[in-house]
Amino acid sequence: MTSHVALLHSIVLGPGRRVVMAELKAMAERLGFANPRTLVATGNLVFDAQAADLATLENRLEAAFRDTFGKHVDIILRRADAWKRLAAGNPFSGPFPGDDGANVCVRVMREPLGPAALEKLETLAAPELRLALVDGDLWIDFRGKPSETKLLSHLTTKKLGIGTLRNANTVNGLAAMLG
After folding, report:
1. What are the angstrom distances between the C-alpha of 61 and each of 1, 44, 102, 146?
2. Is the dihedral of CA 65, 69, 72, 73 positive or negative?
3. What is the pLDDT of residues 57-72, one digit of tens each?
4. 175 — alpha (psi -120 to 50), left (phi > 0) or beta?
């Protein structure tokens, strides 16, 4: 069995209705995944499964989600070793005034971003923001609340491909869950 991290892109099912984490864990159990557990109520699932191709597991999870909750969501999957590398690779992991771990985020990508995407985003970002590509995932030091920047409107699936944003606290929390 191999541990995996699954990130759901959006767990809002409709106005006032979000996925309940207990229901998400139950869905994973029905798929035969062992030891499903969640971190915060924002669509972070850790589970154990037999070794399989990541795309196959993503497709199974997305189909099960659609069948269970009536909506498609993109799900990005990483094996435990890859997730631990992602957490350790945070290029902005030094303390600085005002940082609470929520201001540094990573857009975890299904398909790696290339240097051209980074160059375009750098032209759109405010000067105080720092951006870095690490193994195809985009790290952003917002130096403040991410919701207060115009860059968010450029971090969409339509513009960058399938991916989802998580802050450093969540990334580290998921890494700790993996042991």
Report:
1. 17, 13, 27, 29
2. negative
3. 999 999 999 999 998 9
4. alpha
